[in-house]
Amino acid sequence: MPVNDARSDMELLTRAARAAGEIAMQYSGETAKSWDKPGLGPVTEADLAVNDMLMDMLRGARPDYGWLSEETTDSDDRLGSERLFIIDPIDGTRSFMAGESTWAHSLAIATGGVITAAAIFLPMKDRLYAAGAGLGATKNGAVIRASRQSDLDGARMLAAKPVYEARNWRDGVVPAVRRSYRPSLAYRLSLVAEGRYDAMLTLRKSWEWDIAAGDLILREAGAITSDRKGAPLRFNNPHPQVDGVIAAAPGLHGGLSRSLAFWPD
Asked: Residue 198's domain spans which residues?
């Protein structure tokens, strides 16, 4: 993808992410109407309002791009699209509903199954992460880089508690990492991209809209991403999930991957 196209797409996504924040902040998370979507968890009226605005803005600007969003009924029509929006209107809806600050808007564009433009915005923290293919990654306009950590012992890792069950690790040996967690998967990925943490690991099937933007921001920041078995992440799949995510500093990804029970011998 030409750099100029990636830049234009990235700029569109950053504008849209900030506009999404303006919409979401009009709602009080604790009083916003909410309900459960089977298999996907809670959704609020704010999620839908943001989704509607993004669809109008983004598809209005790029009518030939396909569309995949957590809050839009999926269609096989997107599978024939060379370029595709992948959108999570609010990632961390439970955090939003609780009135917390760690929810995010996650916006990405995939070209031929690879993410080429991305933006993640946390309105309540005023943190805007962005990346374009070949353009590097930024936080509020400043260049960010992944950490240089290479030793798994003592590495700062973002993961949910079930990840640390012995059955997930080779020979049952759980590494001596420093454990942390954030409810938004997009935010976790961004924190690794900016070097505040060394790795992020989820072993569950992951929806594309949760991880698409973070994938590019990480790679452009110098980190390495893969599924839990080390395969490159690909997007616009018929069923829009990937097999877990390993995201880590370049000197750490291999050692972390090989420590998992799922890693091929």
From this structure: 156-259
DSSP string, 235-254: -S-SS-EEEEEEEE-TTTHH
- Residue found by looking up tokens 């996504």 in the block: 13
Last residue of a domain, one of 120, 143, 166: 143
Could you report the per-residue pLDDT of 77-126, keeping only the tens digit for each? 999 999 999 999 999 999 999 999 999 999 999 999 999 999 999 999 99
Residue among 215, 170, 213, 178 nearest 198 (CA):
178
Last residue of a domain, one of 119, 143, 167: 143
Whole-model pTM over 0.70: yes
Token output for 51:
């989704």
- Statement to judge: residues 9 and 135 lie in one domain: yes
61 within a domain of the structure (yes/no):
yes
User: Other CB atoms closer than 10 Å to residue 102's CB: what's the count?
Assistant: 18
Burial class of residue 59 (count of CB atoms within 10 Å of its CB; 0-12, 13-18, 19+): middle
137 plus 162 within the same structural domain: no
Total length of the chain = 265
Residue 187 lies in a domain: yes
Secondary structure (3-state) at 61: helix
Specify the number of domains making up the chain.
Answer: 2
Q: To which H or E segment does residue 105 belong?
A: strand 104-111
Q: What tens digit of pLDDT does each residue of 124-161 get?
A: 999 999 999 999 999 999 999 999 999 999 999 999 99
pLDDT tens sequence across 178-222:
999 998 999 999 999 999 999 999 999 999 999 999 999 999 999
